[in-house]
Amino acid sequence: MQSGFANPVFDAQRAFRAAMNALAQPGTLQALEPSLIPPAPLPAELAALALTLFDHETPFWMDAPLATPDVVAFLRFHTGAPAVSDPADAAFALVLDAESCPAFSAFAQGSSAYPDRSATLLLAVHDLAASGDLVLSGPGIREQATLSASPLPSDFIARWAENRQLAPCGVDVLLAGAGCVAGLPRSVQIERR
Fold first, then answer.
1. Cys-Cys link to 136, which of 2, 27, 42, 146 (CB 3.0-4.6 A)?
2. Looking at the predicted structure, is the pLDDT value of residue 104 above 70?
3. Domains of the chain (ranges plus CATH)?
4. From CA 37, how far away is CA 135, in angstroms rounded?
5. 3 — pLDDT class (breaks 50, 70, 90)
6. How many CB atoms sit inside 10 A of residue 32's CB?
7. Keyword Lyase on this protein (predicted)?
8. What does the pLDDT read at residue 1?
9. pTM of the entire predicted model
């Protein structure tokens, strides 16, 4: 079993701050340089977010490329979180193949009484930059922010527009790239330049 964070308290605090700042300031990149080596094919950034956000009461779902016995065992051992087979039952989803991510509607959407019961998607991306072809506007953004992330689903902009129309319900997304994370809360409008 691979070890978790080298310094669990401080490493989890740093990862939590990065995730919260990413969601509070959409379109900005927050440093996320975890001090752990998870089992392949789980990227260290996704592992750090999982070890920070998951606990025994937060069911998680993983896409097929990520759902290896070693990864499941690692996450269960370090978080106590139960893995689920239906994305609609998950509080969090870990997606290694972001391009093939299931439709956002497949995940928990929350309800008008409990919008907080929606899922947060943690998507691994190879390229993540603070400038690019995605134009963001809305809460937490002064005027506009730009972001580049790939790979993403080919219909990402249409998916996001549908997701945003569900507010206050809908999913939130954290994009995890090499050494950083960016947040896309459901309230943000995204267009392609």
1. 27
2. yes
3. 8-192 (3.40.50.11310)
4. 33
5. confident
6. 25
7. yes
8. 61
9. 0.96
Per-residue model confidence as pLDDT tens digits over 149-165: 999 999 999 999 999 99
pLDDT surpassing 90 at residue 6: no
* Residue with tokens 């979180």, as numbered in its chain: 81
- Tokens, residue 180: 């950083």
State the DSSP string of the chain.
-----SSHHHHHHHHHHHHHHHHHSTT--EE---S--PSTTS-HHHHHHHHHH--TT--EEE-TTT--HHHHHHHHHHH-PPB-SSGGG-SEEEES-GGGPPPGGGS-B--SS-GGGB-EEEEE-SEEEEEEEEEEESTT-SS-EEEEEES--TTHHHHHHHHHHTTTSS-EEEEEETTEEEEE-TT-EEEE-
Edge-to-edge strand list for the sheet holding 172-177: 30-31, 180-184, 172-177, 120-124, 92-95, 60-62
Q: Are 95 and 124 in contact (CB under 8 A)?
A: yes
Q: Give the whole-angstrom CA distance, residue 38 versus residue 81.
A: 16
**56: burial class by Cβ within 10 Å (0-12, 13-18, 19+)?**
exposed
Q: Which residue has the tokens 């080919």?
A: 154
- The stretch 115-144 carries a mean pLDDT of 95
Q: Please give the Cα distance from 180 to 177 (Å, whole number).
A: 5
| Nearest-angstrom CA–CA distance, 82 and 43 | 19
